[in-house]
Amino acid sequence: MAFELDRLPGVGPATADQLLAAGFNSYEALAVASPGELSHSTDIGEGTAAAIVHAAREAANIGDFETGTAVRRQREQIGKLSVLVDELDELLGGGIETRSITEFYGAFGSGKSQITHHLCVTVQLPETYGGFHGRAVFIDTEDTFRPERIDDIVRGLPDEVLTATMADRGIEGDATDDTALDRLVAHVLDRIHVAKAFNSNHQILLAEQARELAGDYASTEWPVRVICVDSLTAHFRAEYVGRGELAERQQKLNTHLHDLIRLANLHDAAVVVTNQVLSNPDAFFGDPTRPIGGHILGHSSTVRLYLRKSKGDKRIVRLVDAPNLPNGEAVMRITEVGLRPE
Ligand code: GTP
Ligand code: MG
Fold first, then answer.
1. Which of 65, 147, 174, 274 is packed most tightly, with the most Cβ within 10 A?
2. Nearest atom, ligand 1, residue 149 CA
3. Which residue's CA is minimally distant from atom 25 of ligand 1?
4. pTM, whole model, 2 decimals?
5. Last residue of a domain, one of 18, 37, 60
6. Using CA positions, which residue lies closest to atom 30 of ligand 1?
7. Which of 71-85, 285-299, 318-332 has the lowest mean pLDDT?
8. Eight-class DSSP state of 129
9. What is each CA distance from 269 to 48, 54, 152, 341, in whole angstroms?
10. Could you say which ligand is closest to the alpha carbon of residue 106?
11. What is the pLDDT of residues 154-166, one digit of tens each?
C-alpha cells in the first residue's frame, strides 16, 4: 500500500511533516513505534499517537499471529550477504543474514574492523557475486574507518567481479583499466555513509539517523542493506565504569540494539556489530576472554562469532551462537587486499 500519511487519523500536513522529519517514512516504521516514542519525537499527544500506530499497523498488516508456513516464507526471503571467503560463508549458512544482528567479537587486532570494511564493499556487489547491490552505513566509534582500506579491498576483487560490478554501475572498462578502477572506487566510497560517534548517546542518535537515511534511499536503486557498528561497546564500556552503573549501561545498550534490529527488519538489512573481549585472568575454566556486554548482548545478537589470531595473517572465526546453524570454525587471512581464504 502506498504510504499516505494524511490517511492516518489526526494527521494533517503539519503533523505529517513532523512525522517525516522524525524518520517515520513508512507504515511499517509507524507500526513498530510505541505511542510514547511517537509523541516524544513530535507534538502529537499520546492518545492520537496510539490511534496513529494502530491505523499504521492495519495498513502495514503487522502484529498478528502467523502460521509456521508464513514464517517459513518470510525466512526464505532473508538475504545472505557474502563475505567472499567460502569457508566463512559456509559456516554462516550462506552468508551474513539480513534482518538480524551479527556480532564479531575478539581481541585487539583480531580483524573485527577489517571485516566491517570488507562488508561495506561486498554489500555493493551484484547479487550473482553474493552482494545486495546496496549501500552501507558505518557507525564509527573508534575512528577506525579508512577509505584507503576500501580502495585496497575494491582493487583486490577478482577481475571477473570487478568487470561485473563496473557493468552493474554503467562504468565503462574492465579490471585492467586504471581510469575505470578509479571511477569504481569513487562510486563505492559514495555508497558508504560513515559517521563518527563521539559518545554512547551520540551513537544511539546516529542509529536513529541511520533510520532516516535508510528511509530516504529505500525506494532508490541503491538502498541501505548493511549497517556496521564498530565498535558497539567501546563507548559504553568507557563511560559506565562503576559496578552500580552496569544496569543503566545494559539498559541503554539494549535500547540501542533494539533500534538496530528494527532498522534491519524495516530495510531487509544486515546489522554487523563488533565487540571487544575483556581479559579475565580470574577465569580458570574455558576461554579466559569473554565479550563485553554480558547476557543482554548475548541474546540480542542473533549470530555471534569469535575471532582469534592464528599464525601470521591467519584468523580463526568460531561460530559461537546461532539459532539455526551448527557451531563450527572457519579460517581466513587478512591480506593487503582484504579478507581471503586460508
Ligand atoms: P581493535 O579494534 O583494536 O580491537 O582490533 P580489530 O579486531 O578491529 O582489528 P583490525 O580489524 O583493525 O585488524 C587489524 C589487523 O588487520 C592488523 O593486525 C593487520 O594484521 C591487519 N590489517 C589492517 N590493515 C591492514 C592493511 O592495510 N594491510 C594488511 N596487510 N593488513 C592489515
Ligand atoms: Mg577495530
1. 274
2. 27
3. 336
4. 0.82
5. 60
6. 336
7. 285-299
8. G
9. 31, 25, 25, 25
10. 1
11. 999 999 999 999 9
